[in-house]
Amino acid sequence: MKSLYSVAEIRTIEHTIAQSLPAGTLMRRAGEAAASAARAMLAGRKVLVLAGPGNNGGDALEVAANLAGAETDLEAEVTVLYLPGSSAPSPETARALARARASKAQFVDSLPLGRDWSLIVDGLFGIGLARPIDGAMRLLVEAINALGRPVLALDVPSGLDADTGAVIGPDGVAVQATRTITFIGDKPGLHTFEGRDYAGQVQLAPLGIDPGQRPPAGARLNEPALFARHLAPRRHNSHKGSFGDVAVIGGARGMAGAPLMAARGALFTGAGRVFVAAIEPAGAVDVVQPEIMMRDAQDFDSGDATLVIGPGMGDSVTAMRVLFKALEGKAALVLDADALNLIADSPDLQGRLAQREATAIVTPHPLEAARLLGVTSAVVQGDRLAAARELASRLNAVVVLKGSGTVIANAGGAVVINPTGNAGLATAGSGDVLAGICGSLLAQGWQPWEAAIGAVWVHGAAADRLVAQGSGPIGLTAGELPVAARAVLNALAR
Fold first, then answer.
1. pLDDT digits (tens, 9 = 90+) for 75-113
2. Cα gap 472→419, rounded to integer Å
3. Which stretches does DSSP call E strand in 34-147?
């Protein structure tokens, strides 16, 4: 299990473990782990270590001492910019400072100019930072980012909120890291929102703390192990009815492509039969994928099909009527796009959704989530985990809050952050394909929670597969995703 710990949870673990260890043990272990990571990144000799006023600065001083100590075989030229602040350092940091000063490291009072650094170690601020970086520190961070050199961040890139993945402050700055070595436990903010851009490659250093010494984490990183019980090769003795029906309802005038994208997502990830029930019928057949059966939404009998409602659906009377009928029914349900906007505008529909016996999957992007919650998209993005939890609780649904590091939450408070996917998914129709994959897995008998986390993982992995093959991320299209998703799902099943 890939646990993700909040700052409060990490502090609790630190306090508990520190009581059973000699003073400064965790800081020394952090310094050793980070120094090893730094050596792995070095392609030259010149290392700049930035050490701030707190214990994160102490970690950085330990790194400097380890890299520049006489006992090392590495001939690194270590320069330390130590910014102690106005308060006295902790005893652990004071000991690390003494070690660093006794080493071969050179201490400076300002950022040296004109040096071609092989590596910069960011130990300015750790997980405890609660205010925006400003003044001289802000100028320093901006100067470091402008250098464009490899950066190893300690615990979390300075200026990034470890809980939310937001850069602290409305106009804040954060260190742009190449790699982040995070201590004791992984942090949610490194894997969602701006964290995925600022943290770079994330490496966990547990500092010798046994998993059994950690309490259950409040969030997890998505992985196939979380939905593995549904992954198995298909039996030969199967037929199309073995894998369920999916009906995609949407497609107002001029929006016929959206439900087709969802339908192809469902078809290529294994649904037995797939229908498009169009609000404004656009044709009798999908000439690209004729296996998809076209129907008129106004008189379509969905039977036992799983319903995917919303792609390109619009806000007509017909759309509202179809949505109301679906909410009143007992079918497995995926709600996306225009269906979510209609629900956001109607407390009655919100209540009907929350009272359904069968748990629905809802797949909002941040603006749709904001409409449902009655806040701004900035509020949603400011704490994506909290927004997804709140929305899941209100709607009694599994919520897929899309975006960089998609967040999946259920009404019981469980939260998973998805690590797959790339910028190629920022394209029209990508969300429609995801909704279709959710519907497909539901139709095949997956439970809503596992269908949601499985669909999100497969959808992102499909985009990663395409990029690895040279298709994207620039110019990647939603139409390429279903075939790639099929390959990913079959590989998992094997």
1. 689 999 999 988 889 999 999 999 999 999 999 999 988
2. 18
3. 46-51, 77-82, 106-108, 119-123
Q: Are residues 301 and 401 in the same domain?
A: yes
Domain ends where: 217, 239, 256? 217
Residue list, annotated binding site for K(+) = 56, 122, 158
**Six token digits for residue 415:** 């939260």
Which residue ranges make up the annotated binding site?
A: 55-59, 122, 126-132, 155, 158, 258, 312, 365, 402-406, 431-432
List the one residue out of 11, 55, 7 whose CA is nearest residue 160: 7
Annotation: binding site for (6S)-NADPHX? 55-59, 126-132, 155, 258, 312, 365, 432
Q: Which domain range does residue 447 map to?
A: 224-493
pTM of the model: 0.95
Cis peptide before 473 (omega within 30 of 0): yes
CATH classification at residue 27: 3.40.50.10260
Q: How many domains does the chain have?
A: 2
Output the known binding site for AMP: 402-406, 431
pLDDT in tens, 273-288: 999 999 998 777 888 8
Based on the domain organization, do 30 and 88 belong to the same domain?
A: yes
Coil/strand/helix, residue 388: helix
